[in-house]
Amino acid sequence: MFRLEKLSDRRKKCDLKFLEDILSGKSKINLKSLFQIQKSTTRFRINFSYKIAKKKIRGNFFTVRVIPEFLKNIKSYSDDFLDVIIRNACD
Question: How many domains are contained in the chain?
Answer without folding.
Answer: 1
